[in-house]
Amino acid sequence: MLLLIAEDFIKVEKISTVLPYYEELVEKTRQEPGCISYELTKDLKNEGHFIFLERWVNEDALTFHTKTEHFKRLVPLIDQHISEKAKYTRMEIIY
Amino acid sequence: MLLLIAEDFIKVEKISTVLPYYEELVEKTRQEPGCISYELTKDLKNEGHFIFLERWVNEDALTFHTKTEHFKRLVPLIDQHISEKAKYTRMEIIY
């Protein structure tokens, strides 16, 4: 299993614009065969900082995700409203 | 529910010293009444970067955790071997 933390930084005044894109992205991504879980969280102390907690069966499942229609359509719409570059951390569970 | 990402940065040459402390911390923390889940992951691209994914019933459960015998004994042992200050991010699930 591959874990990924994907962090987005959205301009505060654009959060309400981005939320419907996020909602659709989460709903559609959870239907992908290689997706174990896909949750979107918000940082309670840093407005506009959104953190995806993603679990994939393997690296191929994540690659598949980035080629889906919903990813290729929604991520560029979200990226129009970022305040800084997204950050990705790939992890594996040790305990 | 409260989510917390706790990030530790351990000196690479001290990882094998710290792992048994982590293992005991995970095992004992999971037995706490307010702990929903408590997983330790490692960053695949940054050796020594360890990321706890924590879910607590509420803030009180997290406060209780920091007052347990295992936390007060093990965390200082781990902290002897850090290369930089730990980082904490409190979150809530939105989707």
From TrEMBL, chains A, B:
Transmembrane regions listed in the UniProt entry: none
Name assigned to this protein: Antibiotic biosynthesis monooxygenase
Keywords: Monooxygenase, Oxidoreductase
Signal peptide (UniProt feature, chain positions): none
Pfam family, one: ABM
Organism: Vagococcus hydrophili
Occurrences of domain ABM (ranges): 2-91
Tagged with keyword Phosphoprotein: no
Cellular component GO terms held in the UniProt record: cytosol
InterPro entries, alphabetized: ABM_dom, AI-2_Isomerase_LsrG, Dimeric_a/b-barrel
GO molecular function annotations of the record: monooxygenase activity
Coiled coil residues, start to end: none
